[in-house]
Amino acid sequence: MKTENIASIYNRYVDDLYTYALYLGFEKGIIMDAIHDVFCKFAADEKQLQDVSNIKFYLFKSLKNRIYDIYKAQKKYIGLSTIDAQDAPFNIQVTIEDRLIGQEEQQQIKNQLAEMLESLTERQREIVYLRYVQEYDYEQISELLNISVHGCRKLLSKAMQNLREKYGTLIFLFLLS
Q1: C-alpha distances in angstroms, 109 versus 64, 102, 156, 175?
Q2: pTM score of the predicted model
Q3: 89 phi and psi angles, rounded to 5 deg
Q4: Which listed residue, 50, 111, 118, 126, has the most CB atoms within 10 A of its CB?
């Protein structure tokens, strides 16, 4: 990988990485530091990215690991217990482009979708985000969440079942859009 390629990869994925880390509940400064750390590491050793089949997934995984390392170091420094990545909060805020629909309709849809997602556990919200927004497959999600593929399928199935029970087919209209 050449240096200019790393810059183009950075420009292509920085917004997605930033948004994902925000959803994980970390501070903006820590997020940007972690993103820069990940790309500095790749710039220092360009061979790391040569054999990567899915660069976006690799960046997500690297960012999540780096953020947890930073968070663990901060907690250790202030004398608190270490964080368990399995129990970290996943806070998603839904945004819809203003140019697609009118302001009033946008707010109504945003409220309905936020209400739907709030009815899920943090873990279920995270898996819905990874599967339907980031379009990761089950193997990638299982690696990011540190659970088995079977557990991943079961978690997503339970989340979708909960949404169907509470909101019927309305949830599928959101996922298809």
Answers
A1: 30, 11, 22, 12
A2: 0.56
A3: -70, 145
A4: 126
